[in-house]
Design goal:
The chain is mainly β and 118 residues long. It contains one helix and eight strands; from the N terminus they run H-E-E-E-E-E-E-E-E. The strands form two sheets. It has a five-stranded antiparallel sheet with strand order 6-5-4-1-8, covered by helices on one side. Strands 3-2-7 form a three-stranded antiparallel sheet, with no helix packed on it. The chain is globular and about 35 Å long.
Amino acid sequence: MDLSEAVAATVSAVPDDSRDKAVAYVHERPLAAGTVLLVDRRPEVLIGTIYLGFVDCEPGKNWGHPCRYVRCRVDDDTVEVTEAQFPPAIEDGRLAWVAQFVGPEVPIWAVIPASDGQ
């Protein structure tokens, strides 16, 4: 799977009932196998290299609230969507989110600005 396919998979994971108010993000660099991903604040060691997408279903609201993680495996094109209540994080680093879809009702202040993840 390449980055453009991961973007498409993440945008397609936005729930139909949240399309007007959700934001979909992708971390545009693959996360390597062995990276510790915090899933709903619980550590999970990645067993393969993935692109990570994140759908915030209620941007601007305090956590926890509905969101989705989209794991796009680089080696076999598998896409796994997981429902959660808190945004993903990684140990020993930052995720560099880039907004790929912004619902028409989302205020600009609620969108995470792009960063280099450093």
